[in-house]
Structure formats: C-alpha cells, structure tokens
Amino acid sequence: MNLKQIEAFVKIANNNSFSRTAKELYLTQPTVSAYITSLEAELGTQLFARTTKAVQLTEDGKKIYLYAREMVELSYAIKNMFRDTEQDDAEREIIIAASTIPTHYLLPRILAEYSKRYPRSRFRVIDSDSAGVIEDIANHKADVGFVGTVINRSHCEYIPLFDDELIITTPNTGKYRALRDRGQPLDWLAEENFVLREDGSGTRREAIRSLKELGLEPERLKVVASFANTDAVLMSVKEGVGISVVSRLAAQEKIDRGEILDFKLSAKGSFRKICMVLSTVHPISEPTQKLIELVKKLYAGGKN
Q1: Antiparallel, parallel or unpaired: β 222-227 and 193-197
Q2: 147 Cβ neighbours under 8 A, 6+ residues apart
Q3: Domain spans of the chain?
Q4: pLDDT tens across 151-205, in order?
Q5: CATH second-level architecture of 92-304?
Q6: Which of 7, 159, 230, 282 is placed for a possible disulfide with 276 were both Cys, Cβ 3.0 to 4.6 Å?
C-alpha cells in the first residue's frame, strides 16, 4: 500500500463520496476508485459499502480508519515542519463517540468552546449508547468518548466530568400529584409499569442501580417498553405508558411545562457521573489532546 491510497481512503470516509474526494485530490474518479480497489485487494477485505445513494465504511473499514488517518496526519505534520501554514481543515477532524445525554447536553458547549480556540478543526460525532461508545474507544474507532456510566473494559480510562441527577418521572395526573404531595417513601414504585432506555444505555444501567438501592430488584421491575432514545421515553411517560428513571437534564423542559412530574430518588438525590473515556493504549493526536485539556478545564472538579 502507499500513501496516496491511504489518503484517498481517509478522504472518502470523511466525505462519504468518491466524486467529492476526486475533486479535492485533483484526480479523476476512476483513479480514486482504482486506488481503493487496489488497497482492498492488498488487504483482502472490502473497505466501503457502495450503493447508488451512499458510500459508507464497512466494519473492516472502521477498524483501520483511525490508523489510516494517523498516517495521513503524520505525513502532513512532516511537511508542515518546514512551513508556516497549518494543516488543511479536512485533516484536523476529531472523532467523538458519545451517548445520548452527553451528546445533547455537554457536547454543544464543548465543541463551541473548542471551535473558538481552534477554528480550523472539524468533528465527527458518533451517537451511540454507553456500551457502544466504550467499544468504539477500546477498538480505536473514536478518539475520545463521553458516557453516562462506567463499564469495566481493558485499556479504557474514565475521567469524571459532571454530576447528573437521576429522577423518577411520571405522568402529570391526579394519582401522581397525590403521591408527590405525600413525599417519601417510594414504596409504590414496585406496582408501577416502567419505560426505560435500551440495554447498553448508561441511563438504564444507572437507573436499575438506583432502583436496586431502593430495594427494587431488577427482576421485579415491570418494564413494558424500552426505547433507543430518551425523547421517546419521556413522551411515553407523558402519555401514560409507564413511569421512568431519567436524567434531570433531559426531563427538565417537560417538567417546567407541566407535562410530566418529577420525584427525587432520595432526599439528597441520586447522581451518576458523566465521564470522558479515553484509550490507554492507542496514540492521541495533538488536536484530541487539546480537546481533552479543554474538557478538563470546562468541567474542573466534576460539579458543573
């Protein structure tokens, strides 16, 4: 394999397009296609799934993408050692894997602050559940991750950032208004139908932990529906499908509008840590290291 093949591979992955990549490299599309065909033949695997509508990395393509990108970035770094110019914007992409709550409530602030400092940077955000994020970091498919729970995984380091309160949410009906007026204890939870996030979700994992601390064992939970996103969970609560345990960050708007009710899980509240997750074995690029340092400054002490 050669650097031209690797550069074409990385740009196609970034652009999801052979034609756009050909224009950026000042090559013909058949030449770019030939680079990839030759690279796939040499590696003995298909790197892209091609359809008439889209070009996407295959699983094998995802496995080698970050390594390939590092090769391209190193080649640019060597060239730029003797220039005053910075790398081209397209070569400064940071791949971030994040679960739902960090994606919606932490990343916008982080990316905005980073872009102010380094306006030539680009980001690719992979929206997943916490288990998926951790796998992406462990398998070198993302540079940095943000999750709502800690799952033991080799070669992963967790840095606590944010105390996120978990609360019980219910429909805003007379029954639940009366229960809220009554306050603790929460013995009525055992008789309720629950709507939760899907398996692999950090919120679900932490919700079950919190309920277990209240004496409600997982096998006793009457889970009537599971959803891949928090918005669907909250809408189901609002419509009376069941109650749920969710992040206050996600539920606050509906609470403020009176669409749902909130209950603390304990007198002092029940909290989980939103964490940044990093690989302890894979190399960290300079742009990613700058992002990590910025995040640490923004969430110093983990209490923001």
Answers
A1: parallel
A2: 98, 99, 102, 130, 133, 134, 158, 202, 274, 275, 277
A3: 1-85, 92-304
A4: 999 899 999 999 999 999 999 999 999 999 888 789 999 999 999 999 999 999 9
A5: 3-Layer(aba) Sandwich (3.40)
A6: 159
Contact 206, 193 (CB under 8 A): no
Nearest to 107 by CA among 92, 121, 96: 96
CA 106 vs. chain centroid, Å, equals: 10
Tell me, what DSSP letter sits at residue 85?
A: S
Model pTM greater than 0.85?
no
- Per-residue model confidence as pLDDT tens digits over 57-71: 999 998 898 889 888
Nearest by Cα to 75 from 10, 143, 125, 141:
10
Fold of 1-85: Arc Repressor Mutant, subunit A (1.10.10)
Asked if 156 and 137 count as a contact pair (C-beta separation under 8 A), the reply is yes
Tokens of 221: 């939970």
Phi-psi region of 254 (alpha: psi -120 to 50; beta: other; left: phi over 0): alpha
